[in-house]
Amino acid sequence: MDALLQVSVDGFRFENGSGSCCKPRNNLESGNNLFPSFHEPQTQSSSPNDSPPSVCLDNSPVLKYINDMLMDEEDFVGESRDNLALQAAERSFYEILQQQSPESDHTTSSSSGDDPFFTSISTTTTSADSAALVSNGESHRKYRHRDDEEDDLETNRRNKQPAIFVSEMEELAVKFEHVLLVCKANQEEDESSITKQQSQQPNRVGRAKGSSNRSKTQKTNSVDLRSLLTQCAQAVASFDQRRAAEKLMEIRSHSSSSGDGTQRLAFYFADALEARITGNIAPPVSTPFPSSTTSMVDILKAYKLFVHTCSIYVTDYFAANKSIYELALKATTLHIVDFGVLYGFQWPCLLLALSKRPGGPPKLRVTGIELPQSGFRPSDRVEETGRRLKRFCDKFNVPFEFNFIAKKWESISLDEIVINPGETTVVNCIHRLQYTPDETVSLDSPRDTVLKLFRDINPDLFVFAEINGMYNSPFFMTRFREALFHFSSLFDMFDTTIQAEDEYKNRALLEKELLVRDAMSVISCEGAERFARPETYKQWRVRILRAGFKPATISKQIMKEAKEIVRKRYHRDFVIDSDNNWMLQGWKGRVIYAFSCWKPAEKLTYNHVSI
Length: 611
Hints:
Elements: H1 2-5, E1 18-21, H2 60-98, H3 102-111, H4 116-120, H5 127-133, H6 137-159, H7 166-176, H8 187-204, H9 210-221, H10 225-237, H11 241-254, H12 261-278, H13 296-309, H14 312-327, E2 333-339, H15 348-355, E3 363-370, H16 380-395, E4 400-406, E5 424-430, H17 446-457, E6 461-467, H18 476-497, H19 501-505, H20 507-524, H21 537-546, E7 549-552, H22 556-569, E8 574-579, E9 582-587, E10 590-600, E11 605-606, E12 609-610
Parallel strand pairs: 2-3, 2-5, 3-4, 5-6
Antiparallel strand pairs: 1-4, 6-10, 7-10, 8-9, 9-10, 11-12
């Protein structure tokens, strides 16, 4: 087992949660079977006279990327379950044989005349059967102690990250990467489906899952659930537990996790209020990331549904990638320091565009930065993201190098980020900085520390996007009311845009993993336990200016194309506008997300050499 966990991979080093991989050789090939070669026709380098490619004008690369990951994960999960079932059966049989000691046989014969195998597995039967089969108290304690040890061992096994054979990873890698090669061939089909979907949108407004949902809506209209939630929150804030319990019961009777948007909002907010009263906050909802009990397949399905029904991520990724592409038009080396790289969903479109850049692609260096995972392999996810990006770059002949850091962002020093002279450097942080603690948690403000690190990197461009939220007040009721307004818009958005039966099945998972987690943090937690701490885009502006940046203008072409994406592909109630070098997105007039670009106010020099 240790040998599997310590597979030697060319180009990797594992020191303090950071490392590097995927460094290109002179022939631009990895030279390692972990990155298999592909036999599709290679794309030819663009000539200097070629016109610049469009960047992310359709989101099919991202959706196909997710589809591909889903197919791989479902196949792998199925195979893993079969293997685990076989291993469990073998282990159980082995344990049965081991338990046939003379002592156990003696105990069995003195208790009853049954088969000794039956006694050895009595710990898995009902309590009544156990009492009948094991009459000797000492023997019963022995088996119970053994069962407790097995439970502890099984718990530890579930907490470990799975180790995969290199040969299995090679097979998975081949299937992972059939993503971008067919993007353009299916673009017309995607646009046709989008047009058809738009023609149906007027009928979709206000409609949810058939007549049953209409009856639920009528039931909701007779009760003001938002008012009940506010009254319950006021009782919680004043420590009136009796009144709070009464209001919770009333809310429960009118809410549902499968109802309309208002009912679902009330259901989850009631859970958060109850958790605040009892202090029973489960670990899966006490962190900003999906729980370990949620499979990767379900996470990808939820993310795919979010991209399909909501314009936020697609538009922010487009604006970020197009801004980076314009900056790198003449660069020989492009270095992207991505704070919050996660699964790398942002980058397929940019990789495709760079491969078609007039004059050929630049060398691409990516430093992927993530928070550490729990368990023995804290950097496992970010490493796999690097390998996946490497395989994409191999397909499109883009020279590529990947470095990674997996630790708390405020503890990262500038020395850990390798920045080479002469390269075009970009700091990228999309929808993740709100999870870094601010000055209400620590006087030295980890959030400002991270922004200072962004500035010390001295990038040519800092690309930033974040939630526009006002539910970060230290006062509970103020925070609750703002969270109620914010999440009401999101639940209404999904209530309007999620209509297809197959999409509706994944809605609960989407809400639980991408929305409810933040709401639970804001309502039920205080102090350092409250990890979701959003700010308005005007507050972010003050912080970023104070860190030593100045605004960079978003080009009119980017704004025009972003508006076209929202207008052509998404519901008419999505809004997109600009304000003082910010691109703002929202729903029915409420600004929910904000995007901006920045440059250092002054160019820093180190050892009299401009970096």
